[in-house]
Amino acid sequence: MKKRYFALVLLGCLALSACDFSISKIGVTVVDLIQSEVTLDISESETLTARVMPENATDKTVVWSIDDSDIASISSTGLVTGLSIGETVATVTTKDGGFTDTCDIIVSIPVDPDVVSSVSLNQTSLTINVDDQVNLVATVNPNTALNKAVTWSSLDDNIASVSSTGLVNALAVGNTTITVTTTDGGFTATCLVRVNPNNEDPNNFWDDSQDSLRFGTKNIDFYSFNDFHGATEFDEDNSEPGIKKLSTYLKNAKDNNPEGFVLTSSGDMWQGSADSNITRGRLVNDWMNLADFSAMALGNHEFDWTINIINANQATAEFPFLACNIIEDDTNQPVNWVEPFTTITKNGVHIGIIGAIGEGITSDILASNVEGLTFANPEPYVVSWAQYLRNNGADVVLYLLHDTVTNISSLEGNAVDAIFGGHSHEGQSSPSSSYSTTAIQAYSNGKDVGHIDLTYSFTNESVTSSEGEILDTRSFRISSLADDPETTSMYQTYLDNEISAIKDEVRLPNGQGIEKSDIPNVYNQYAYRYFKEFKDTTDAYEIFMVQMNYARSAIASGDITYGMIYKALPFDNALYLVSVRGSDISGTLSDYGIFYVPSQSSQISGSSLYNYLTPSETYYILTVDYIALKYPYCNVMNVVETYTEENALPRNIVSRYIPGYPTNIN
Predict the structure, then answer these.
(1) Domains 30-108 and 118-196 share a fold
(2) How many CB atoms lie within 10 A of CB 347?
(3) How far is CA 409 from the centre of its chain?
């Protein structure tokens, strides 16, 4: 009897085993940590939470690890405990597929209510004019600390001094740093300070040490970049020379006319590459300092990281940012955080430089970043400031405009002596027929530089000749130039300390390249997958379509790095879930962007969307904030949810799923 029972049990086990082998395995596709950063006191603990997707994956086992076990420990269940002061990284890894995600762990000493733990300033960057005064306010933490005494200091008292109460006095043009230090503990906080010339006092406009040069005729060589978009790296495939070779190119140009060389920008210098974006434009700013730029007009993409970043970069720039026509809606007056003009003296010639941004270009900026601002018609401001500068000693007036030069009016164009434009990424070497002033607009990404060769006669008190040209600086023209040592050193420091570890991470080894026109469709499909796996796990929303506008560059074949994806999708666009009526989809929305319709598993042209919807019904759409907040699309979209976390940025969504490309794309 027992033997028969044993045989039956054994047979049953074999049958179950056979059933197990017949079930197809559901593989893990991704793991996501809910926390991206955890701050702990010593001995404090917190459990990290990992989500393994899909929910029905066969093997959801994970392994936890920590980079520095002296700073924090981590258990097999994800419990992190602080051990000593410092920062480390916790990593979760799936057993199936080896997918990973990380969380930054910061461990500090528990706060003693009687002892100072930190100090902060009400401003971390500041731009003021000579003779201005601004009071900085220090906050000592915690509020219950017994000794809140602080001392103040300036890195350069000749540029700006600071009193014992934090009152900053601007004394001379330049850059310095104000530091506050706590008596208890020696904690510090800093404010970067840029001092610009006092535009209200014409006595400060010109360099009187060059008065002896004001005779005969003098040649001024104006050079200008526009729409550089962070193209710091030498990229032969895209004909981008990069800053190391451009510095050599510019130094050679300056050697031809050292006393009459003027270098400027018509805007959009920072946004567009991993190098520049990771540093929020500081790398490009520092290069512009090395290259001796005299001024930069603000472009629309300078606003991509908010006005706070503009102010922070201005505080470290050794040249002023200009825009005379950015108007504050509440006061109907120009804003006070950017200058309308600046003045320089070259070879004895007094040169006024006016900056402006194209009328209405706020529509090309994330709406929330320019809320309460209007970019007005620059004509009346430019004409007025040009006359003001001439009345106060300007021999030559240069106009930097972040807009195409064909949009300049006759009054505007004829009020100045030379013009550099930008914005439209096209070369223009002849002005509109409505004005006679020489106007130049070069191409983007450093592939060209605009040049205006101008002669001023002190005898005639006028410009006697002016010739403009677009100089081709593409890589095949200057690839033979040696890298500038000073720029190379500065660039390498940034790469070593801030950029390379992020930018050079390989996301897809030996990958298939993606054409620029195909990248929005790739993003749309990956955004839909991200939403379904992490945001709509209960399938509450049926997405009609995913909508994006355009990518900035192609992704080359080979080892596809995070930096390559970054350059294609550089903007920090949040993911938006919106609802829209069918009639508005086939009407208002159909003329803008790339559309992926999940129900059809394919990209659908805007003109064909009506075939897949009912005009009277309401549908859910995934899109980016730039579209959701942009007129007129914002008028027909009702925002349901916004996803602003780092993982939801376009480049990070694509980076998450690109290891499966192209097999995971329809």
Answers:
(1) yes
(2) 18
(3) 31
DSSP secondary structure string for all residues of 558-569: EEEEHHHHHHHS
Confidence at 476, pLDDT banded by 50, 70, 90: confident
Q: Which residues contact 623 (CB under 8 A, 6 or more apart)?
A: 546, 547, 548, 575, 576, 578, 593, 637
Q: Residue 356 corresponds to which tokens in the numbers above?
A: 């402006």
- Compute the 3-state secondary structure of the chain and give helix, strand, coil in percent, each to the nearest 5: 30, 35, 40
Q: Secondary structure of 451-462 in the HEC alphabet?
A: EEEEEEECCCCE
> Which residue's structure tokens are 């505080």?
315
pLDDT band for position 431 (cuts 50, 70, 90): low
Task: Give the strand pairing for 349-357 and 396-402.
Answer: parallel
Query: Is it the case that residue 12 has pLDDT exceeding 70?
Result: no
Q: Is the pTM of this model over 0.85?
A: no
Residue type, 80: V
The stretches of 302-452 forming alpha helices (DSSP H) are 306-316, 379-391, 410-414
Distances (CA, A) of 242 to 313, 402, 444: 20, 22, 12
For the chain, the structural domain boundaries read 30-108, 118-196, 212-495, 505-660
- CATH code for the structural domain at 118-196: 2.60.40.1080
* Strand spans (E) along 285-330: 293-297, 321-322, 326-328
Tokens of 168: 């900053």
Sheet order of strands, 79-82 included: 45-47, 79-82, 72-74
| Mean pLDDT for the chain overall | 92
* Antiparallel, parallel or unpaired: β 341-346 and 333-334: unpaired
Architecture of domain 30-108: Sandwich (2.60)
Average pLDDT (276-297) is 97
Q: Are 457 and 214 in contact (CB under 8 A)?
A: no
Can you tell me the distance from the alpha carbon of 94 to that of 63, in angstroms, rounded to the nearest whole number? 6
Q: State the average pLDDT over residues 291-305.
A: 96
CB-based contact 570:549 (threshold 8 Å): no
CA distances from 409 to 51, 91, 406, 432 (A): 58, 59, 8, 8
Rounded percentage of the chain residues whose pLDDT exceeds 70: 96
> Could you tell me which CATH number the domain at 212-495 has?
3.60.21.10
Asked whether the predicted pLDDT for residue 660 surpasses 70, the reply is yes
| Contact between 468 and 439 (Cβ < 8 Å) | yes
Q: Supply the DSSP string of 78-97, one letter for each residue.
A: -EEEE-SSEEEEEEEEETTT
Task: Give the integer Cα–Cα distance in Å for 531 and 443.
Answer: 38
Q: How many CB atoms lie within 10 A of CB 51?
A: 16
- Give the residue among 206, 252, 170, 226 at the shortest CA–CA distance from 353: 206
Q: Residue 314 is encoded by which pair of tokens?
A: 């201005």
Q: What is the rounded average pLDDT of the residues 116-129? A: 92
For 505-660, CATH number? 3.90.780.10
Which pair of structure tokens corresponds to residue 262?
């003027």
Q: How far is residue 289's CA from residue 284's CA, in Å, rounded to a whole number?
A: 9
Q: Give me the mean pLDDT over the 242-246 stretch.
A: 97
The answer to whether 659 and 507 are in contact (CB under 8 A) is yes
Distance of alpha carbon 226 from alpha carbon 445, whole angstroms: 8
Any residues with CB less than 8 A from the CB of 630 and at least 6 apart, and which?
A: 363, 367
